[in-house]
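Forwarding the complex inputs:
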Amino acid sequence: MSAARHVAVVLLILLAAVPAVANAADMGFAISLATRIMIYAIAALSLDLILGYGAMVSFGHAAFVGIGAYAVGIASAHDVWDATLTFPIAIAAAGLFALLTGAISLRTRGVYFIMITLAFGQMAYFTASSLSDYGGDDGLTMWGRSEVFGASPFEDDTVFYYVVLGCLAACFLFARALVGSRFGRVIAGVRESRLRMQAVGFNPYAYQLVAYVIAGMMAGLAGALMANHSEFVSPSTMSWQRSGDLIIMVVLGGMGTLHGAVLGAIAYLMLEEVLSHFTEHWRVIFGPMLILIVLYARGGLGRLIGGGRRDG
Amino acid sequence: MTATLVAVQVLNGLQFGVLLFLVAAGLTLVFGVMDFINLAHGVQYMLGAYLAVTFYGLTGNFFAALVLALLAALVFGLLLEFLVFRHLYDRDHLDQVLATFGVILFLNEGVRIVWGSSPLSYPMPVMLSGVIPLMDGFGYPVYRVAMILAGLATAMLLWVLVTRTRVGMLVRAGASNPRMVAALGVDIRRLFMIVFGFGAMLAGFAGVMAGPILSVEPGMGDGVLILAFVVIVIGGIGSIRGAFVAALIIGLVDTLGRSFMTDIFKAMMAPAAANQVGPAVASMLIYLLMAGVLFFRPSGLFPATGR
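Prediction (whole assembly, two chains):
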């Protein structure tokens, strides 16, 4: 318990210090990179809720992120800019998609679930690609960031950084509370033994579906932030490779630890940043690394740093 | 929308379905026998096409390139099995997904380094490059007909292999109860290798055949892989028969949907709206079909028994 909490607090302090350090060292790009990392961390965190705690291997998680991003992007194309309106729409849209697809996907187990979530993710991807009014394949450029009651605080990169950090912290605390609650115990119980949970009188399907929708909504928030960060939305946000990236982050950081998802996002995106300095073909290096990690280093960074207990 | 146009699109759908079947067959066999989810199956399809590009460059003959590419695809599949996949058989599905995802990242980027990013191509054989005349001046390429026939022949061959030979018997037994098969003294590791190599070769075959009509480029296997997943999920994982039926259904539904959905919507709504809605619905069609099948039959149309 305490080790994991220390990791989370240290992470928070380090992240909070990034803009000051970056400005002092005249490395403005670091703020943008760290913002991107934190947005992915929110998405990875939401995936960890269902993948790590619920053993639901969702291979279409990027679709929720993309739907959140598209909600903000499409609203901006219709000249609706206010975040107090667009963010709830983004979260609700992602949640609705999670409800519809989850209701079907969760009827299946194991490898069927993996493939079906993958297929639904692709469905979202191809649908976005065919929205010719909103850029189609090329994506949709937003001419600015969301506003709050007519003001534009997000335009300042440092302010936006702290908004994203606040969202990450809020999501983390929410996820931690959820995992510790009775609801979270039931989800983890279904992971361990579905049959026993049924025997005790729980309905695993309903609990898993609610968890799936919550994770989808959280990923939708990440998408809304992502659209604001890059001021651009494109179908590639939803591609299955992005879903794979999110799974890698969660596993790399250590499943079912929450802070592991954040560590995983940091590790993966920093690795990408560093490797792509050496060669544009950085995936040729990362692919074999990933295979070796799977074969020989299970458990991930979170276990390494945050202690061994699954419940943290 | 003439009858000829419909006939052409039906043929295109069949040809696409046959291609999907070749990829899905290996995937469903590997999953059925080994309980192994192989995301890298799509890059094996891509590799088949790239190998054909190289061998065509060396020999200048399509059929020689086909044979050499198949052999190379087989060798490569066995190499991958030896280096990576055999260490994953007793791991859970998540580990398999991640490790084979690593293989995809490596190979997609690898072909980019070796062959470059721009699309490549090689010509179809001269004897298959003609056009079969249909009515109204429309024609249908001989090569696509040959693809359909080659795919059907392969399906027949697979059916004979799986239902009439000793190896096929072991494969079927392995699909329903691998532990029992191992307990009865069958070298299950070798059986795995045979199935795996064969699956890799089938995917490579599909890639070689697709080369002349689609562009050969990095990532070309990814889309096919996901469609093959849809196929085996609808057909029932582990079932060759299911994969065949589902592949043809998916090929037809996808092709016909893309060709005619916009026109169908135009009959119901304003043309401008139909131009928006038609393509969107067409691209969702097969996934909706999959959702529908799974809603009523969660283990597919032809579930493999004993699992």
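The longest helix of chain A spans residues 204-230.
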